[in-house]
Design brief:
Blueprint (H helix, E strand, L loop, with lengths): L1 H12 L9 E5 L4 H12 L3 E6 L2 H13 L4 E5 L5 H14 L6 E3 L15 H16 L1
Parallel strand pairs: 1-2, 1-4, 2-3
Length: 136
């Protein structure tokens, strides 16, 4: 595994896979695939902004990425909320001076209960989080 890490770092350093000078927004970047995407984009030189609903988890990740000397910023945002999505986009616009090269709509949710128990509010929340964000 260490050899693979070394080869990947060498590719980034020799410029063949460089994202230096690019900007990226990754929603839901504190867990799972989103977390890995944030780290990879930042390792390849992109300036990354991520968001998450949980402020404690976000701060923990930001501290870790800072210690790794990765250029990552973050903000608390519930992407199911149109108002919060608008605030997120204004924040990203401000941080990156209006330039966004990469958008990863990673945030998603599900409500795990039988279909007969799903409420209209459940459906609205899932659809707003999973489908509305990309169209905003």
């Amino acid at each position: 595994m260490a050899e693979r890490e070394s080869r990947r770092d060498n590719k980034a350093m020799d410029g063949r896979w460089s994202l230096l000078g690019t900007t990226a927004l990754v929603t839901g970047g504190t867990k799972g695939i989103g977390h890995a995407i944030v780290e990879e984009l930042a390792r390849f030189g992109a300036a990354v902004h991520t968001c998450a609903r949980n402020e404690v988890e976000l701060e923990k990740c930001l501290q870790r990425w800072g210690a790794m000397q990765l250029k990552v910023t973050g903000s608390v945002c519930d992407v199911s909320s149109p108002t919060e999505r608008e605030k997120l986009m204004e924040r990203v616009k401000s941080i990156f001076n209006g330039k966004l090269n990469i958008l990863v709509n990673n945030a998603g949710t599900a409500i795990w209960k039988p279909a007969t128990e799903q409420t209209p509010e459940d459906y609205k929340f899932v659809m707003s989080t999973n489908l509305r964000l990309p169209s905003t």
